Amino acid sequence: MNIYADRGNLIMLERRCEWRGIGFEVSSAGLGDTLDPDGADLYYIGGGQDRDQKLCAHDLAERKRDDVHGAAARGAVILAVCGGYQLLGHSYELGTETLPGVGLVDLHTVRSEESRLIGNVAIEVELEASPPGSRRVLAGFENHGGRTFLGDAQPLGRVLKGHGNNGGDGREGVRAGNVIGTYLHGPLLPKNAWFADWLIETALGLREPLDRLDDAFEDAAHAEARRAAGL
Ligand code: GLN
């Protein structure tokens, strides 16, 4: 699934690697394809409408499940956005149908009959960054009918503005080691260059932060996204 600016997110990672002389190669695994659990430093699972999710869920849960678990077990970064995030968990209930997830993190999602949770969103996250323990803001856009509930799992962040996982508990996304799920889609990474760099550093196991880039445009996009969310 890749309809919510997912390619833009990948281009962001590609450019920021290229600008620093870090090799970057992207390959895709579509319906029916197998996934190489040792083949990448970062695995990206994009979002999609319920209809697309129905097509992907069984393929992901049956054909790719073990390899997604294998990639996570060796510490690869897994970034799953929106519909992809929902499928990281145990299940996604849509009326009488229940789609399976890959069961990588303890969460489940239920499609609500109430309004979709749509709008600009900002969350506060705490990631190992320099300085350690510092809190950063991720700003973006969410659009989901599903409500996600975490079991024994930590959220990616705390909702500052917007709805988050279910519009009720103030939690957004999930974080389990290098496995990250979030409802923030649209151009998540172009609006949050610092997070793109954190993903690259983590995926490559770098001990030192990446060289700084001239982020005037990226910083402006981030500031605008924060403003749009009302921060
Ligand atoms: N189909 C899911 C929902 O509406 C995910 C939507 C998305 O990926 N934006 O909850």
Q: Can you describe this structure?
A:
With 231 residues, the chain is α/β, with parallel strands linked by helices. The protein is 30% helix and 26% strand. The protein contains seven helices and twelve strands. It has helices spanning 6-18, 50-63, 65-73, 83-86, 188-191, 193-204, 216-229, and strands spanning 42-45, 77-81, 91-94, 97-100, 107-111, 117-126, 135-144, 146-150, 157-161, 171-172, 174-176, 179-182. The strands form three sheets. It has a four-stranded mixed sheet with strand order 1-2-12-11, sandwiched between helices. A four-stranded mixed sheet has the order 4-3-5-8, covered by helices on one side. A four-stranded antiparallel sheet has the order 7-6-9-10, covered by helices on one side. The longest helix has 14 residues, at 50-63. It is globular. The chain starts with 5 loop residues before the first helix and ends with a helix. The model has no long low-confidence stretch (mean pLDDT 93). The site of glutamine has 13 residues, from α2 and β7.
List the helices and strands and how they pair.
Layout: H1 6-18, E1 42-45, H2 50-63, H3 65-73, E2 77-81, H4 83-86, E3 91-94, E4 97-100, E5 107-111, E6 117-126, E7 135-144, E8 146-150, E9 157-161, E10 171-172, E11 174-176, E12 179-182, H5 188-191, H6 193-204, H7 216-229
Parallel strand pairs: 1-2, 2-12, 3-5
Antiparallel strand pairs: 3-4, 5-8, 6-7, 6-9, 9-10, 11-12
Bound molecules: glutamine (GLN).
